[in-house]
């Protein structure tokens, strides 16, 4: 449609991408797409099928056959795998510890990236992940690289973790660092800041401050795009 742009938000785990992306989409009346949820859904499917996350051949062919749907819901987005709502289940520590290995598999990325591009076919999308600005939507009018210190990211995650998955803060910090390392060092579309991305460090910013910065940036990009 006229006047719509695409917004890519990338960054490390717990920087606030999904929270912020959802709110930006709400304010602009755009569609929010959480690509991390798709990698999580594949990881969940592999676990359930008893496939090791490191078994790239088996995980790859599973990824090709899975029926993954992202549906809009009250609080943003619902993830449906083979007809089953797995939105909550894909947030577990079990998945956190395995998802980066699944996400490093070429066949997995090929399938999910093509789904993501299809979902963003029409403009008016806010998409968050690791490789959105660099690979999935290289032509996005606005690219944001959202970061924060690893300590504050671990603290934020600690506060939202349910009792069942509780580990101490130091342990959680190590697990986040490990996932960031795997995501940044993998061969295919690693987590890196796009050259033309605006870097926002949210370490000492509130969610609302980050949201309004991005909404403001989107207005200037919209004018430029005309
Ligand atoms: O929310 P959080 O930052 O913990 O993670 P997420 O965005 O749900 O992503 C989970 C994992 O999926 C990441 O650690 C990456 O391994 C992978 N991922 C990716 O490789 N590419 C994306 N575009 C999004 C996620
Ligand atoms: O998607 P990503 O992994 O980048 O992060 P998130 O799940 O959106 O945010 C992690 C947590 O940090 C959430 O509980 C947010 O409410 C919180 N947060 C915050 O406290 N301050 C910010 N400026 C951004 C996020």
From TrEMBL:
InterPro entries: Cytidylate_kin, Cytidylate_kinase_dom, P-loop_NTPase. Gene3D superfamilies: P-loop containing nucleotide triphosphate hydrolases (3.40.50.300). Pfam families: Cytidylate_kin. One of its GO terms (molecular function) is ATP binding. The gene is cmk. Residues 7-218 form the Cytidylate kinase domain. PANTHER family: CYTIDYLATE KINASE, CYTIDYLATE KINASE/PANTOATE-BETA-ALANINE LIGASE. ATP binds at residues 11-19. It catalyses: CMP + ATP = CDP + ADP; dCMP + ATP = dCDP + ADP. It is an enzyme of class 2 (transferase). Its main location: cytoplasm. The keyword Manganese does not apply. NCBIfam families: cmk. GO terms for cellular component: cytosol. One of its GO terms (biological process) is nucleobase-containing small molecule interconversion. Its EC number is 2.7.4.25. It comes from Paenibacillus roseus. Keywords: ATP-binding, Cytoplasm, Kinase, Nucleotide-binding, Transferase. Belongs to the cytidylate kinase family. Type 1 subfamily. This is Cytidylate kinase. The keyword 4Fe-4S does not apply. It is found in: Cytoplasm.
